[in-house]
Amino acid sequence: MLDGHVLLGWLCSCALLGLLACAPRPAAAYFGLTGNEPLTILPLTSEMEEAAVKAHYKVCDRLKLEKKQRRMCRRDPGVAETLMEAISMSALECQYQFRFERWNCTLEGRYRASLLKRGFKETAFLYAISSAGLTHAMAKACSAGRMERCTCDEAPDLENREAWQWGGCGDNLKYSNKFVKEFLGRKPNKDLRARVDFHNNLVGMKV
């Protein structure tokens, strides 16, 4: 697990900028973690080859994504699995960081309704930690060869040069950041809450 003080200090100090000034409004579906329904870790099954090919379509549809997100999820079979991994990773990390707090990342019942309708600091943390989880999961998926649209990082920095020298494969953070920004981004919006949500997403990507 990440260091609690470092993670909470960085995420919360950055993610809370402007949050208290936001007018309450329902948050958009956020690939399962802050969507309108309780978090569900969906198993990926492959009973038949044909079913396995289209299995990611069903997962994408069940994650309650927005139209653009669903399209991005369906166009690459590896995205659905990566989203699942990001949801699980984000939820576990959130629960770990808040394990001694009154709210321990419970995302069901009245807690879910309150978090989604009002601009709490916990809401900001959820957006940031979810974005961080997706960025990390996507970078790992690229280097593991699970994605059709990306591969290993080809950046000429020392760490990746050493990885290539020893037959390794660097995590593709460049593609991951680009994907997450497009996946979670929206068109320019004058709505303060929407802009703050996007800001919190960017905070998570930087982590």
Automatic annotation (TrEMBL):
One of its GO terms (cellular component) is extracellular space. Residues 1-29 form the signal peptide. Keywords: Developmental protein, Disulfide bond, Extracellular matrix, Lipoprotein, Secreted, Signal, Wnt signaling pathway. InterPro entries: Wnt, Wnt9a. The keyword Cell wall biogenesis/degradation does not apply. One of its GO terms (biological process) is canonical Wnt signaling pathway. GO terms for molecular function: cytokine activity; frizzled binding. It comes from the Eukaryota. It is found in: Secreted, Extracellular space, Extracellular matrix. Belongs to the Wnt family. Ligand for members of the frizzled family of seven transmembrane receptors. PANTHER family: PROTEIN WNT-9A, WNT RELATED. This is Protein Wnt. The lineage of its organism: Eukaryota, Metazoa, Chordata, Craniata, Vertebrata.
